[in-house]
């Protein structure tokens, strides 16, 4: 059975979610107050309607209650974003994802019970900052305020050593959860301690931010 989604606000962020979900074959109800935005999504989404999501009556008429997951991607109008989220919550929507504009907005959304609050500009900024620090840091994903998972190219200091030699857990407090071997393209999840790291290998490491930061400084960042 197809899953049903609604995307409220068809700016760059909401529009991109709507496009991607539709391409993946999902049922998507696209909502925006602006006619031209809605017209843009008429051929893409299953249904595209002009509506103000702050209006509870309109939301009910659109049958929003039957939708599994609603994405609120109203950007600049923080009040509209909060009111819409509150209304969706009161209507009993199972899963609500909301884009936050700033930290205060995020706090309020968490308080009123949004299931997932995303902050795409801030998160992408952080990820890019990490990859700018070193060509060896390929990606950085936040798991919580103080824990992350990073994808790093093996630094020169790691080459030819195994996980016992490097003793990353004891020395830095973080864990190597997978190694992707550059030569074979094979991914080894939960690698053996005896596995030797070769040039071109990629390590997936999980841990506290402060520990990952030490690990990156000492073992990943080569003098470029
Ligand atoms: P992005 O950063 O994703 O590009 P944007 O800058 O386009 O977003 P906004 O223009 O603030 O963000 O809002 C996103 C969309 O939400 C706009 O197309 C806007 O018309 C729509 N929108 C704003 N308020 C409402 C509302 N109450 N109901 C439905 N749609 C709304």
Q: Could you please say which CATH topology of the largest domain applies here?
A: Rossmann fold
Distance between the termini: 51 Å
Distinct ligand kinds: adenosine-5'-triphosphate
CATH architecture of the largest domain: 3-Layer(aba) Sandwich
Mean pLDDT: 92
Basic shape: elongated
The proportion of strand residues reads 25-35%
CATH superfamily of the largest domain: NAD(P)-binding Rossmann-like Domain
DSSP helix fraction:
25-40%
What low-confidence regions span 5 or more consecutive residues with pLDDT below 50?
none
Over all CA atoms, what is the radius of gyration? 22 Å
Report the total helices.
Answer: 9
- Total count of strands: 11
| Global structural class | alpha/beta
What is the H/E order? EHEHEHEHEHEHEEHHEEEH
Report strand order across the widest sheet: 3-2-1-4-5-6
Could you describe the largest sheet, including whether it forms a barrel?
6 strands, parallel
What number of structural domains do the residues give?
2
- Determine and state the CATH class of the largest domain: Alpha Beta
Domain RCK N-terminal: 2-118
GO molecular function: monoatomic cation transmembrane transporter activity
Pfam family, one: TrkA_C
Domain RCK C-terminal: 135-221
Account of the 3D structure:
The protein is elongated, with a radius of gyration of 22 Å. The chain contains nine helices and eleven strands. With 224 residues, it is of the alpha/beta class. The protein has helices at 12-23, 35-41, 56-61, 78-90, 103-111, 120-133, 163-166, 168-172, 209-220, and strands at residues 4-8, 27-32, 47-50, 69-72, 95-99, 116-118, 137-142, 147-153, 175-180, 187-189, 202-208. It has a six-stranded parallel β-sheet, with helices on both faces. It folds into two domains: 4-118, NAD(P)-binding Rossmann-like Domain (Rossmann fold, 3-Layer(aba) Sandwich), CATH 3.40.50; 123-220, Alpha-Beta Plaits. It is 37% helix and 25% strand. Adenosine-5'-triphosphate binds at residues 8-14, 31-34, 37, 52-54, 73-77, 80. Residues 8-14, 31-34, 37, 52-54, 73-77, 80 line the site of adenosine-5'-triphosphate. This is Ktr system potassium uptake protein C. Residues 2-118 form the RCK N-terminal domain. Residues 135-221 form the RCK C-terminal domain. It comes from Paraliobacillus quinghaiensis. InterPro entries: NAD(P)-bd_dom_sf, RCK_C, RCK_C_sf, RCK_N, Trk_Ktr_HKT_K-transport.
